[in-house]
What we know:
The protein is α/β, with parallel strands linked by helices and 351 residues long. The chain has 11 helices and 6 strands. Strands 1-2-4-3 form a 4-stranded mixed β-sheet. It is globular.
Amino acid sequence: MHDEIPPSTVPENVKLSLLNFPNDQEFIQVFIKDMKEAIIDCGRFLDLERLDGVTVGYDFGAALESVDLGYESTVATQYTNNGDVIAVAKAMNVLRDGIVMSHVVYNGNIIAPLVDSSHEHHLDALHIISHEFGHVAELKWRDEAMPGLMLKSSEGDWAENMLLQTAIVAWEEYAACRMTGMIGDREALKQRYSQEFDKSAGHSLQRAKQKIKEYRTHGDIGKLLVEAGEPISMPFKMAGYMMGHLDAIEDSTPLEELCPLYAKTHLTTFIPKLFAALRTIWDERELGKGVAIFAPLSALLKEAYLAAGVELIPQGEGRGYYINVPFTAATMPNGEADMAIINLRKQLGFD
């Protein structure tokens, strides 16, 4: 007796839009058929009730810009492109009749191998497609668990919101990878996610300290938090991908073995704690804890900022944070020479 195929959760009114495709009608027709099947099939093991639509474009930026968000935003169409990681798909939050939905955009150049099962990147295309739909399922959980949080203007302290949003990003990638890690070449994905995390971890501290050196000249705290925050937080995001995939395929390979650069960094203090925190959120996500479920992640990120040389000091209820950037040779433009001058000024009572 065969198990019945579960019904798809994809809404009946979901539309597939194609932009800037090559002038090849045969390819287009096959792609439409295969992509629609992939969407429906993903809806059989993921809750895609919040899927608004799917757009595939050969000009990724133009495809993102083509989506009607339903609200004003200057950042919604931005995507990761930092020289190390380039996004090839994005699940965009949109507003439809007062409900937060997700419109998924794919780079057609990357998922075109979907139509050819013998293509070396066919499994990659399948994984990318399913991974973004993992974000759609995660969106529904988070919006129901934390009503009114999504698309809400940030209130309170900027630094606190920054920590929360960074924590959520790490969780989003963990959840999406854990839900879809069985789709694609599991071992190849394991190696790719591990290598991307390892690369990010390997240069995290050096790049953060360079941004602190630049801060010594420009003196803009907001700019510092953004520019140093990227190399500080990126390893946590990349770890989310890697850890979610490892848990999905039930792989317990030691991280130091997978990631030799990481093994030599200060992040060995933080990443095991991140792993534990993400697993706890996964296990407790249906317990109604609200946004407080991310508090351990935010606290861990604050520790990571401190380790890099940026101290976020809470000033009491509703008073935000004081940002302290202690002088060290590693964060001064001229290193030990600058520290010698600072120490001399202290000895002479000038500071």
